[in-house]
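ERR on first pass: missing label on line 2. Operator R.T. fixed the label and resubmitted. Corrected input:
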Amino acid sequence: MDEQDMPQRLVDAVIADFPDHAPGTRPAHTIGLGVTGYFRGSPIARDYCIAEHFQGHNVPVTVRFSNSSGSPVQHDGWSDARGMATRFHLQDDQATDLIAMTLREFFSPTPEDFLEFSKEARPRPVKPDPWWRKILDMLQLKPPNPDPYPGQNESGAPGSLDYANHHRSAQLAALDAAMLGAPVSYARATYNAVHTFIITAPDKTKRYVRFFWQPVAGVEVTDPTAPPVDDYLQGELRERLRDWPAEFLLLMAVGEGGDPLLDPTQAWPLHRSRVVMGMLKLIEIPADQETFCEKMSYNPGRMTRGLEMSDDPVLAARAQAYEVSRKMRGGSPCPFSKG
Ligand code: HEM
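pass 2 clean. output:
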């Protein structure tokens, strides 16, 4: 395969997974809401990383929360991953992005594998499995296929599970996805940046780290036995911000020798040292969502001094694919800066 084609192939693969994709919109995480606020690095953060947003002063941010589907139809009540993309607006029109989602691991260790995975994950007709099938699955330690939602005729979930049954690398993410549920609020979910990044300390020590956002309001999902509501997450956030900012702690796990540094499908041991890197306060929902959210383009490769991408091949491929996607949908790198 021609390496040059890979970013375009990845975007095409995502589009193929959502046949109702609307051109001019994001092919994944299509439904979203932009929110502004600020981030303040914790007192310890600057000892770990020299990046500007970890130096302890308030840094303006634009966050976009999203549902992971590439369909333009909003199904807030469906059990699915959610996204939280954060742009830190730095001095001199510079910026850095941190893109995170509610799954803790990804399905694929390489872009080539993602192309195979996404072929399997194309929507198939779905109907509820009979009770004996569910029991059989559980006895084989396979997550049972979720029952379709009312009116849902097709889903990518059965294909993803089949793929995971034959590819060990996809199993953690598939298990995680099967148990996600729907958050009661965008501000009540944990979001993981999944990949490994490299930070530089003031004494030039480099560390391999993984970032995740922990909601101060706590994690909660909707009642899985209640009929799903299609449209509540954006209204809930608007309502919530009228009373109080939505707050998140930025946590950082520090990798150690032997950890899978370059593979986003593998978890790190839970007892790895975790450092609180700062606090995010989300305050306002800009009225002009088209300019300050929909047209904006986040990129996992938008780094800054003191913060580098690791050699994770999926991370490198994403950085290129998101730029292809931005151009295809006419997005702007950053509506706030000249860059
Ligand atoms: C090979 C793997 C992946 C591919 C090909 C892919 C592809 C894409 C594309 C094309 C977009 C739309 C970009 C745009 O038009 O601005 C997108 C958005 C997004 N992706 Fe991925 N993605 C991958 C992996 C991941 C992973 C591992 C995460 C979690 C950290 C993630 C989280 C997100 C989020 C949160 C958004 C929405 C960003 C926004 O609000 O602008 N993706 N993805």
